[in-house]
Amino acid sequence: MSPTIHREGPFRFFFYSHEPREPPHVHVERDDAIAKFWLHDASLADSGGFPPRDLQRVAAIVVNRRDDFLEAWNDHFGEP
């Protein structure tokens, strides 16, 4: 299961439910590209085929919604 936590434009932000032991992070997909961002500092973990312009756009969304994403992570996986 990969619950969607946010959609913005062509991007879907989600978690993979089988990753609770990793530090908080969010995956984002568009078409065939999937990237991963760590939530503690909103840094890129894996670019997953995104072009640089899309990565900049997605990074800005992660920075702006970081607290919401962390709250969704904790709701889904439990508090650390």
Uncertain runs with pLDDT below 50, 5 residues or more?
none
Summed up, the domain count is 1
Radius of gyration: 12 Å
Residue share in helix:
25-40%
Average pLDDT number: 94
The major sheet is characterized as:
5 strands, antiparallel
List the total number of helices.
Answer: 1
Structural class: alpha+beta
| Spatial order of the strands forming the largest sheet | 1-2-3-4-5
Order of helices and strands: EEEEEH
Residue share in β-strands: 25-35%
Q: Ends: how far apart? A: 21 Å
Using DSSP, what is the number of strands? Answer: 5
- Gross geometry: globular
Q: Could you walk me through the main structural features you see in this protein, from its secondary elements to its overall organization?
A:
- The protein has one helix spanning 52-77, and strands spanning 4-8, 11-14, 25-30, 33-38, 44-46.
- It is an alpha+beta fold and 80 residues long.
- It has one domain.
- It has a 5-stranded antiparallel beta sheet, covered by helices on one side.
Using brief descriptors, characterize the structure shown.
80 residues; alpha+beta; five-stranded antiparallel β-sheet; globular
In short:
This protein has 1 helix and 5 strands. It has one helix spanning 52-77, and strands spanning 4-8, 11-14, 25-30, 33-38, 44-46.
Write the layout of secondary structure elements.
Layout (H helix, E strand, L loop, with lengths): L3 E5 L2 E4 L10 E6 L2 E6 L5 E3 L5 H26 L3
Antiparallel strand pairs: 1-2, 2-3, 3-4, 4-5
